[in-house]
Design goal:
By secondary structure, the chain is mostly helical. Helix content is about 75%, strand content about 0%.
């Protein structure tokens, strides 16, 4: 999800459209609904970081990196970093299970 959003933002897609486009990639309906709710918050004038932080279903780390990205003007890079972090975390978890 964060990798897709990062790619969309890097290519110039507006944040709300990027959230709406990437929501189905979340993997389940609960996360998809959380992303769509975040899109609605951003469309209403909120920041992406605040919108992501308000979604209890999403990891707090995602909102924190979005805040840094918004402050530094490197939102797409921070979301790509979040994607990399989540991928590494998943690999560690799967390694532990096997």
């Amino acid at each position: 999800l964060s990798a897709a959003l990062a790619a969309l933002l890097a290519s110039g897609v507006p944040i709300v459209a990027g959230l709406r486009s990437s929501a189905p990639l979340a993997g389940n309906r609960v996360l998809e609904a959380a992303v769509l709710a975040a899109a609605a918050r951003v469309a209403a004038g909120g920041s992406l970081a605040t919108a992501l932080a308000a979604a209890a279903e999403l990891p707090p780390f995602l909102g924190e990196l979005a805040a840094i990205g918004e402050q530094t003007g490197a939102l797409d890079e921070m979301l790509a970093r979040a994607a990399s972090h989540f991928e590494s975390e998943l690999e560690r978890t799967l390694g532990t299970l096997t």
